[in-house]
Amino acid sequence: MKIKFFGAAQEVGRSCIMISTDRTKILLDSGIKLGKREEYPLIDDEEIRQVDAIFISHAHIDHMGFLPFLYAKHYQNNIFATKPTIELINVLLSDYLKINSDLNFDKNILNSLNAKFRIIDYKKEFKFRDLTIKMIPAGHILGSALISVSDGKDTILYTGDVNLLKTRLLNGADIKNLQATTLITETTYGGDNDIFPDEKKVAKDMLNSINESAKTDSKIIIPSFAVGRAQEILFFLDDYINSGAMQKIPIYVDGMISKVMRIYRHNVIFCRKELQSRILMSDYDPFKSKNFKIVERKTRTEIIASQEPCMIVTTSGMLSGGPVMFYLSRLAGKKENKLILVGYQAQGTMGRDLQDGASRVTINNAPVDIRLSVETYRISAHADRRQLEMMISKIRGLKNIFLVHGEITKMQQFQAKLKDKYNVTIPQLNQEYEA
After folding, report:
1. Does domain 2-193+381-434 have CATH number 3.60.15.10?
2. pLDDT tens across 353-363, in order?
3. Domain ranges of the chain
4. Which site in 24, 88, 379, 394 is 20 to 30 Å from 222, CA atoms measured?
5. Are 157 and 395 a contacting pair, CB within 8 Å?
6. Rounded (to 5) percent helix, strand, coil in the chain
7. Each residue of 170-179: pLDDT tens digit?
8. 199-376 in CATH: which number?
């Protein structure tokens, strides 16, 4: 088998990788790269026409946002993913189209796309031409999967995004009995210093910060990905309010988070058994908590004008667009307010700029001075360096590793750690390699 990288090589974003044999060409993921400008996979029209199928690891824009562009370029074959992933893709792409007016596709393309989705169940081998595909729970977000691709002789394992630790909603990745000759792994947190702090300490520090702000009329903005991080954060806040550990203040939920919450609820069978039992065995459904207040566009100004403290959980997670820009532009000038970052902030995004201490940003072509405090609490759905090493150690028969979806310095550090035991490559964009 051969591997070609149209994206995610020496960068975070636009994951798009071709696996090919003499008979078959498939894509693993088809994402875009968000930042000050959007970037797309470096796949040309001729290569698109050669693709026999697409397999999607999970429903984040950087792993599936290029799908409608492919159909606009006349790709006509099927797209395979788990049931929750397909449902989430439909919602996210519809929202993406709604907030971007200059795209080269419309609802007709989305409808064509929707007709091409095919469900793959976890852990069931799926024969596609001369390849055998298997989806394995990845623990990252609802429906996320490691993708195993075998030609009968060798096996490639692609992580997509992976998390080994259980969260409030999901179990960690299923890494039992993994076997592969080649691994393509994300390295979002693959650097030498990417060891996550104790989860309880992070929760305590964040809780103290929120309670401190709740004593005043401060507003706390929590930007979050609509899928995954938002649900974890909302459950975190809900649990602490219900336990009395957190002062009860309004939690406003803005953007498409509420739509995604409904999909999570409808697919709760894919969540942790403890969460399923919690819903079935009691009258309390955390997906429908009374602590959450769903925001209508017309009420945003009222939230800003209110003198009461509150939390605003809203999209987008890296401040690359969405309702968070409205709140930031109006709340940034007051030093008592807070911006709490809970997810990865990619290079080139406003979230990363603020995390690095930017004192001024531009929103809607207007300068905005940043006086509110910016805090980061690492509540991640990605594996850290230790988890990545543990996963790799569990893979039987592993010889080759390709490092993707990370910053180049982190990849180099991880390569140095692994190179004595494995053949480790940091691939280049648009380059093809033997598996």
Report:
1. yes
2. 999 999 999 99
3. 2-193+381-434, 199-376
4. 88
5. yes
6. 30, 20, 45
7. 999 999 999 9
8. 3.40.50.10890
